[in-house]
Amino acid sequence: MENKTENNETKILIAAKNCFQKKGMAGARMQEIADEAGINKALLHYYYRSKQLLFEAVFNQAFKIIGPKLGEVLNANLPLFEKIQVFTQNYIGFVIAHPYLPSFIIHELNQNPKFAKQLTQDERFPEISIFKKQVEDAVSQGIIRPISAEQLFINIISITVFPFVGAPLLKGFTKLTDEAYNLLLEQRKTAVAEFIINAIKI
Amino acid sequence: MENKTENNETKILIAAKNCFQKKGMAGARMQEIADEAGINKALLHYYYRSKQLLFEAVFNQAFKIIGPKLGEVLNANLPLFEKIQVFTQNYIGFVIAHPYLPSFIIHELNQNPKFAKQLTQDERFPEISIFKKQVEDAVSQGIIRPISAEQLFINIISITVFPFVGAPLLKGFTKLTDEAYNLLLEQRKTAVAEFIINAIKI
DNA sequence: ACTTTTGTTAACTATTTGGTTAAACTATTT
DNA sequence: AAATAGTTTAACCAAATAGTTAACAAAAGT
Q: What number of other Cβ atoms are within 10 A of residue A13's Cβ?
């Protein structure tokens, strides 16, 4: 067993992930990451030379997880409605398990547009072309109402991700307790696909 | 004319708004705010004692703008479908004019949950109870499919706001240029309401 | 006129913070 | 066991940064 005691390199990465995701690049402190990893601050610099590089390691790892997760379903060989069901269910489940991840990615991408361009060109970056064709076919066959694949895709992602990103705000508006709100998120695993399919189905 | 030369207090607030919205509380620098306002850094502290207080002034002002804007339509005396149309159109238009605002509010609220609680109790904080009743009535009258007002509200906000918050990400996915993406946002002013109404209408 | 209050600045201070160094410690090789 | 390479730490360092001070200027009272 190799992870009897996690090695420092991964302990650092885990601690850094937590700190960066909670506080963002600008708000996170190297000392805090070191403390959370239970090691000396100099060791951070030993493994990852600078804050910037440590941040990029965390960010890339985050994207390596979430990117393929998205592409996987989008490019699967499934009928459109089923695909929407699987996608939203999978994805909401995934985000429930990693609640800080979307806000983190979005915030840092907003801070650093160059970073965004770079990501787009990564080979792991999800492709929507298959999904796009599928939507266009469904429209021309009269199965769904006319809508561009881009608009539909944006609607799906929005309705899936935003309830996590905007949780504090939405909890405020709806005056729900944390438990009630989490229950509601859980229900969305199936409710969201239903909503979207109703919106496009003829 | 009183704003011949804007007074320093508001010049500071404007500069601070820009910096905080672009870089967040943690990323913004007092010196940068002073430079952008064209004044000495000490003057920031003269008017707003600390970075924290300046930040709160900016944040509260931001919420003072966006909060009532939301409540206004939600509590208006309009039939449900029309309300959805007016709300999405108004709100998308508003966010086009203030594109950094939602990300800013969301990020800072995620950083500081106490802040969120405090806001909820503010009298300016929008109420959804009228909207809630309206949705419940529409459901029981069989006008719309069964859905909780909270879920519908979350869907509306998500689909309205997320395309702005997640713009860099969504631009990446859809491979659209900035212009194409902006055009698409413009189209959403009407398309979004249609989508939502189709989703719930029986 | 002069006194007081308000506004403004340059220079300074204290602290935080990312990053370095040199030494100590540990495992691995020879 | 000695040498070597890899790992870890305490103590530092330099730059950045929020905040202060003291002097000065302008405006407002008197």
A: 19
- SS3 readout for chain B: CCCCCCCHHHHHHHHHHHHHHHHHHHHCCHHHHHHHHCCCHHHHHHHCCCHHHHHHHHHHHHHHHHHHHHHHHHCCCCCHHHHHHHHHHHHHHHHHHCCCHHHHHHHHHHHCHHHHHHHHCCCCCCCCHHHHHHHHHHHHCCCECCCCHHHHHHHHHHHHHHHHHCHHHHHHHHCCCHHHHHHHHHHHHHHHHHHHHHHHEC
β-strand partners of A144: A201
Residue bearing the bigger pLDDT, B113 or A149: A149
Q: Tell me the torsion sign for CA atoms A169, A86, B175, A66.
A: positive
Placement of tokens 């870089």 in the chain? B23
Q: How many CB atoms lie within 10 A of CB B65?
A: 13
CB proximity A106 to B under 8 Å: yes
Which of B21, B165, B184 should we substitute to test contact with A (largest number of A Cβ atoms within 10 Å)? B165
Q: Looking at the complex, does the CB of residue A71 fall below 8 Å from at least one CB of chain B?
A: no
Are residues B23 and A26, on separate chains, in Cβ contact within 8 Å?
yes
CA A5 to C1' D15, whole Å: 37
Cα–Cα distance measured from residue B18 to residue A97, given in angstroms and rounded to the nearest whole number: 34
Judging contacts by C-beta atoms under 8 Å, the chain A residues touching residue B23 are: 26, 111
Q: Rounded to two decimals, what is the model's pTM?
A: 0.92
Bridge partners for A36 per DSSP: none
* Cα–Cα distance list, A139 to A145, A146, A149 (Å): 6, 5, 10
Residue that the structure tokens 């055009």 belong to: B183
Token pair 């944006």 in the structure block, residue: A154
Structural tokens at position B108: 């800072």
B143 touches chain A (CB under 8 A): no
Asked if pLDDT for residue A2 goes beyond 60, the answer is: no
Whether pLDDT at B168 is above 80? yes
Structure tokens belonging to residue A81 = 């409605």
Mean pLDDT value of segment B12-22: 96
Tally of residues, chain B? 202
